[in-house]
Structure formats: C-alpha cells, structure tokens
Design goal:
Length: about 450
C-alpha cells in the first residue's frame, strides 16, 4: 500500500512545510498552514487522455495580438496605469478605509461612458452609491449597480449584462458557496479573485478589485492576490490629509512605481497638475531642519520637502522616528554624520518626516535626509534656493545616482538657483542642461555638499 506523506501548505504564500507550525516560516502569517495528504510511492494514476501538444509560435512570425487600451480621461490615473486601462486586464486597488478607493472607481466609471460599467458592491447599498454620485456631480448613465456578494450570482450577472468594466467593492466581501470558510478569509479571497480574473480573460472585460489594507500597510488577504492580477495600484498618504498618492506597485502593461497625485475636494478626487509645487508648498525656509529633495518617482521628477526635528532627549535611548523614510537607512546616515563629519547625534531625539505623505525609497534621497538632520542638529537653516540629491556611502562619500538630468531640469523649472548632487553625475552633462539658469554643484563628499548648502 502506498504510504501517505503529509505536507502542510500555506494558504497565503504557498510555502510547503513538512511539519505543522502555527506560523508560516515564509510569510510569517499565523494559522494559514493547511494539511495536504499526498500518495507517496510509484504513481498509479492513469495517463490523462486527450492531451495535445500546445501550439507554439515563433517570436517574430507571430502577429502581435492587438491589445487596446482605454484611456480613462483622468490624466493622473492613466499615468499610473501606463496609458489607460488594458482590455481584459485585472487591477487591484488597495488602500486604507476612507482614503478614496470607491470615489476614484466611481469617477472612473463615469469617465468610461458610453461603455457599460457594472459596480458590484458588498460594502455600500445602491442608495449610498447614488448619494455619492450626486455629491460628485456624476451623470453616469452607463453605470449599473448590483448589491451582491455571492460569487456565483456575480458571475451570472456579468454573463447576462456583458459590461466593459466590472468593479468589485470590495474583494473581501465576496464569497463562494463552494468553500466553507467565511467571507474575507484567505481561501475565499483567493478563489473568488481567481474566478473573477478567469472570467475577465475569457469574456474580455476589464476588472477592478478593491482591496483593504492591513494595519501594517499591506493588502489584506493572500499575498498571491498580487501575483494573480496584472496591475496593483496602492493609495498612499494619510486619510486626514487632503492629498492622495496612487502608486503602481506592479504593472504588467506599464512602468511600476509610477505615481499619480490627487486632491480630495468637495466633488471628489481632483488631479494635481504640478505635484512638485504641492510637495514643497508649505515650506518654511527660515527654520532649521528642512531640505528639498529632487526625487524621481516612476517616470517623473519631483521636488519634495524633507523635514527633521532634532531635540535633546530625555530618555537613556534617544528616539529615532521616521515617516516616509526607512528607519535603518536613517540610522546609517546618523552614524555617518557622527563618525565621518564629527556631528554629534547621540543624546538627540531625531524625527524625520516627508511632506505630503510620500514614501521615499530611492537611495538618492539620502543626501536630503542628511542635510535636514544636519541643519536641525547644527541649528542652521539651509540655503533656501538649493535642492539636493545623492546617495551617501559609509565613508561619507557621495555616490552617483540615476536620472540626474531630469532632476536638474525640474529644479530649474521650479525656480531653484542651485542643485547639489554627486560630482560623478556632473561629468557628462548635455550642453542644454549646462545652459539652465541654475548652478550645478558637484560634490564628492557629504561634507562638501553640506558646505555648498550653507549648513
Ligand atoms: P471613499 O471613496 O469612500 O473611501 P474608501 O472607499 O477608500 O473607503 O472616500 C471616503 C472619504 O472621502 C470620506 O472620508 C469622505 C471623503 N470625500 C470627500 O471629501 N469628497 C467627496 O466628494 C467624496 C465622495 C468623499
Ligand atoms: Mg469604499
């Protein structure tokens, strides 16, 4: 008799374990391991009948299938989607409650007219959605509402109505009768999403799934959900602020990490035409602890204000708090300031904040963080007409960064008179860049850069 081998498979990330554990060793989620018994021994199953070899196509000979994009008409949304919604694609829209997911989808639905849009809502009643549409002053004759949470009924409705776009608000509320677990569980979310995505590909409609975010900031539900869809858009920014940033975390049909900037107004989300102006709008140039970063987000250069507050600590362990910037990277910058520049950081609480709720990930942000902290520590405001960018090495050197020319152009465009960046980035500048009305200051070390900024 064949021995039965027991395996435990994580329903969240798919990792396989030989023994049961309360917590998945791979994705660290609790209680997601499910027992799977496999026949161990020679396979006795019959050969599967009726299998045919797949038709292969030569890369060059095959005629490219004509995919077409549908422009949403909302410029910032088209930008993050990579030019518009792709036919038969599935997007996942994630964000904290109240950040504007339903609002954006409703605005999108109205823009797609006359294409038919089906809005499946398990969160709000048709009346609530109607009320919101009135507030947004939308006359979406093409929009059809269905307060439905049963997956089978949803699929049936789609089959009958033949919409061009289906919005599911939210995927956590949908459940299938095929599974015993309750709505919102990992199995339900994964299976329901899989069936909806399959239907979208087969019946050729666009699918937008709205997903909730956990306290830690990641999309609730299985990690695999992000792998299943073509595009993941995530709302950033704080719910209590008026500004909203939508970032493409994944995009099979366009660039990733592209951002769209919106402002939540009385009548919905409005595009912010010049995001740089917004990110540096509330700046106080006379206060120490501020700097302006020339950042690259996706395909766009942006100027962003970085703030640091440095105060003598009352604790034995000084506090290090950062919003929008990696805390470990901030600790390294503090260590470089202390060791290489002799600026004492021990004994000081350091708080760093990026304006507008933006999250900085590129190494080129190092210099602006260091400049803001150094300016706060030394109590000297930096030169108000300077922007900076650059990666800091452990020896206190400035390392080359990407896309320096676009950063320089953006700084000049917003009227800054000086840009401080790594010397390596100033070697092969195009003549047109050199002619811009600002001083390009190439620095080899962090010390040189701080000097150039008057800190
Ligand atoms: P909503 O789209 O319901 O958020 P989500 O679906 O992500 O939970 O947005 C709700 C918030 O937006 C709510 O706090 C009210 C605010 N809002 C406006 O300020 N103006 C508007 O025109 C609308 C429709 C909402
Ligand atoms: Mg909502």
């Amino acid at each position: 008799m064949a021995r039965q081998a027991t395996r435990y498979v994580c329903s969240n990330c798919g990792a396989v374990s030989l023994k049961y554990q309360g917590r998945c060793f791979e994705c660290q989620s609790w209680g997601t391991l499910e027992e799977i018994r496999q026949e161990d021994g020679p396979r006795q199953g019959k050969a599967v009948q009726g299998v045919r070899a797949a038709a292969v196509q030569n890369l060059h000979a095959a005629a490219p299938e004509e995919y077409h994009r549908m422009k949403t008409g909302i410029g910032e949304l088209d930008r993050v989607l990579g030019g518009g919604l792709m036919q038969a694609s599935a997007i996942l829209v994630g964000g904290e409650p109240g950040i504007g997911k339903s609002t954006l989808m409703l605005q999108l639905a109205a823009r797609l007219a006359p294409a038919k849009v089906l809005y499946i809502s398990g969160e709000e009643s048709p009346n609530q959605i109607r009320e919101r549409a009135t507030r947004l002053r939308l006359h979406a004759e093409n929009l059809w509402l269905a307060p439905e949470v049963h997956l089978e009924a949803v699929l049936e409705t789609i089959e009958k109505e033949q919409p061009a776009l289906v919005i599911v608000d939210s995927i956590q509320t949908v459940y299938s009768g095929q599974y015993q677990s309750s709505p919102g569980t990992v199995t339900q979310i994964r299976e329901c999403a899989a069936m909806l995505i399959h239907a979208a590909k087969r019946q050729n409609f666009m699918l937008a799934l709205i997903g909730h975010i956990t306290k830690e900031g990641s999309l609730a539900g299985p990690k695999t959900l992000e792998h299943m869809v073509d595009t993941v858009l995530q709302f950033e920014g704080e719910g209590y602020q008026r500004y909203r940033i939508v970032r493409s975390v994944k995009n099979r049909f366009g660039p990733t990490n592209e951002i769209g900037v919106f402002r939540m107004e009385e009548c919905g989300l409005e595009e912010v035409a010049n995001p740089s102006e917004f990110f540096i709008s509330g700046r106080r140039t006379d206060v120490p602890g501020n700097s302006v970063l020339a950042a690259i987000e996706g395909s766009r250069a942006l100027l962003v204000e970085v703030q640091a507050l440095v105060a003598k600590t009352n604790y034995s362990m000084p506090q290090r708090i950062s919003t929008g910037f990696d805390l470990k990277r901030m600790s390294i910058i503090l260590a470089v300031l202390e060791k290489r520049l002799g600026i004492e950081t021990w004994g000081q609480d350091v708080f760093v904040k990026i304006a507008g709720g933006l999250k900085l990930v590129e190494p080129a942000s190092d210099l602006a963080i260091a400049a803001a902290i150094a300016s706060g520590l030394l109590n000297r405001p930096q030169d108000a007409s300077s922007v900076c960018c650059g990666e800091i090495g452990l020896s206190g050197e400035l390392r080359a960064i990407s896309d320096s020319e676009r950063r320089i152009r953006e700084a000049a465009h917003l009227g800054f008179q000086r840009i401080v960046l790594p010397e390596a980035n100033t070697r092969e500048l195009k003549p047109a860049i050199k002619k811009l009305p600002l001083t390009i200051e190439g620095c080899r070390t962090l010390q040189e850069a701080l000097d150039a900024m008057g800190i």
